[in-house]
Amino acid sequence: MDKVNYEELNNALLIVVDVPNLARVDGIEGLKYKDIMIIDHHPKEDIKASFSWIDEKKSSASQMVTELILNTKLKMNKKVAENLFLGMVSDSERFSLKNTTVETIATLKYLLEYSQIDFTSLYDVLYTRPFSEHKFIAFITNNLVIDENKLGYIKISDEDLKAFNVDLATPSNLINGYNFIEELLVWTFITEDIKNNQYKISIRSRGPIVNTIASKYNGGGHKYAAGARVNTMEEVDKFIKELSDACREYENK
Ligand SMILES: [Mn+2]
Q1: What's the pTM value of the predicted model, to 2 decimals?
Q2: Is the pLDDT at 86 greater than 60, yes or no?
Q3: Residue 84 CA to ligand 1 centre (angstroms)
Q4: Please, which pLDDT band fits residue 2 given cuts at 50, 70 and 90?
């Protein structure tokens, strides 16, 4: 994000996009804001705002911002159009997630016609990666434990991250890649965050609702795509058991 000199700001309006908890809003330490506006497609959580546009039926906040611009006198330049395209593609996992609708595609068509951006070249930005990261994917695949309730989980240590030269954000960026595996109902990557002495958890589901479980472990998110953070391995194991139980209940229904 652009660096802002907060000292110069009086009565700032904080526009929060694509995140429902204040603790997860990046880069606002020291900012004195007078009011908040929300544009989001996550279920509402703790942020209090005078104006909220929250719509869980939208596939991405980028889709919402695109619609806002295209339906008002706001303008977008090429860079903005490119970023909105990338946001729409990545947040919907290339228009494959359940909240992708005909409206999403209509907005996309409108965006591409309006901006005339070279969109197929932009996939390079999203998907080109070093071979070491590909080897890390193989590591996850080889070490993912799948239990009798169709829960897949892996505990990734800081050493593992270092061995593959990837960072703490990498596992959560890769988790959608396990979306079409028959043997998995829910899968979770638990990554050691050595700096904060915590475990960062990403969760995806093809059945049970998981954000309610995540919310018990300092997290939240969408029904089928959520995240959490815990401090001890005991909590991690408790969390894994709870997810596994949810899988069993789902299968028994
Ligand atoms: Mn989003």
Answers
A1: 0.82
A2: yes
A3: 12
A4: low
Contact indicator for 6, 30 with CB cutoff of 8 Å:
yes
For residue 73, how far is its CA from the centre of ligand 1 (angstroms)?
Answer: 24
Report pLDDT digits (tens) over 180-199.
999 999 999 999 999 999 99
Q: Which CATH topology does 6-125 take? A: inorganic pyrophosphatase (n-terminal core) (3.90.1640)
Q: pLDDT (tens digit, 9 = 90+) per residue, 222-251?
A: 899 999 999 999 999 999 999 999 999 999
Percentage of the chain exceeding pLDDT 90: 83
- The CATH label, of 3.10.310.30, 3.40.50.10400, 2.40.160.60, 3.90.550.10, for the domain at 131-252 is 3.10.310.30
Distance 75 CA to ligand 1 centre (A): 22
How far apart are the CA of 127 and the centre of ligand 1, in A? 18
Domains of the chain, by residue range, sit at 6-125, 131-252
Q: How far apart are CA 229 and CA 246, in angstroms?
A: 19
Cα of 204 vs centre of ligand 1, distance in Å, is: 14
**7 Cα–ligand 1 center, Å:** 30
Cα(61) to ligand 1 centroid in Å equals 6
